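User: I'll paste a sequence; please echo it back and then give the predicted structure.

Assistant: Echoing your sequence first, then the prediction.
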Amino acid sequence: MAVHGHAAGPQEGFAAHPIPRLAIPELDKCIQCGFCLQHCPTYRMLGVETESPRGRIHLVEAAAQGRIPIDARFEEHMYVCLGCRACETACPAGVRFGTIIEAARAEIGPTGSPLVRRLTLAALRQLMPFPARLRAAAALLRLYQHSGLGRLARTLHLLPRRLADMEALLPAVPARFFTPSQEVYPAIGERRARVGVLSGCVMSLLFGDVNEATIRVLQRNGCEVVVPRDQGCCGALNVHNGERAAARRMARRNIETFLGAGVDAVIINAAGCGAASKEYHILFRDDPAYAHRAETYSRLCRDATEFLAELGLAGRLGDVRARVTYQDPCHLVHGQGVRRQPRELLRSIPGLELVEMEGSDRCCGSAGVYNLVQPGYSRRILDEKMQAVARTGAEIVVAPNPGCMLQLAAGARSLGLPVRVRHLIDLLDRAYAAAEGPRGAGAAPP
């Protein structure tokens, strides 16, 4: 299914042919029962059928049959969707809605104005597949942040409102990116597994400390950890925005790299990357020459919390005295079905009080780049989420996914909530350090 060029006007420049129906076998599984409706953030927010999973499936079905055009209105319905996949958890028929929406977007390409489309395509094709270019872009952003130009632009209101809103979501780019000093880290104690770590793009650039903590926690649990230098971005953002050709090239790179590393599992600490990696077999299902290797790789992929819960934590954990609440990343709970394991790990940390929030498995509004392309809807969803966080009285909200962490941190800053956002691995790492280090029990989390 090719990506097609398009202009801003309706029915101009979009695909002139129907979506190939055989490429979306999931369409036949929907029984139109409507169980998904109240679980869909956009239906709950807008209350119209076309902004529900059932309504969007009907639209894609109509486009597949050639009854409606793939035009600007069709594009709007496909991209108002967050792709949170809460409907998949609710669906009694097991419809994989994420596959349907991604196939439809592959016929549209990135959304937005002509300029935004071109910039997005440039980023997806010329930036995301190249780790060195990503690091250079992040370094330039850090220079901008530290030069004072950002403060000056905000003070003088030089940035357009849209750009100013986008900038507000950005964290401070750290001075040091994740650059592992070696490819193989030995297990501490008896070796229980040999695992690879997908370092990711956003995680490596903005959350390198979480990647380092992931390696330490895995080592402490008897894992020999392999961090291949030849790996790259998983391609999740490309798939979510209809750019499948580049996503396949990126996926092949990781498949070959990790299959060649001889690991028992590929550990992923970002929910979006994990869901995309576990679905490489879908990305390559129309490629008989590569489908088997993609499926083999997908079976190796495990979220870090999923793997650690299955393995069973080893060693002693020290006290981490804090009141925390947990936000289920959509692509972890709905995309991968991982709900119980993160909570088990949190409850295993001495001194930690876990308080469940209302609607913890509802999307926070980040959804890849949704907060950039649909800022109004994203903000409404985020405000509801932050109110739920505030009602828990938690000091820390735990969210093992970079997009969620950035979104929740921006929400806390905007509303002045005294809450910190942390990855679950951070707290596990802190608990091990509290048991081993001179500060001892009762150390507060960073």
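The chain has four domains: 21-106, 114-168, 184-309, 316-436. The chain has a mean pLDDT of 89.
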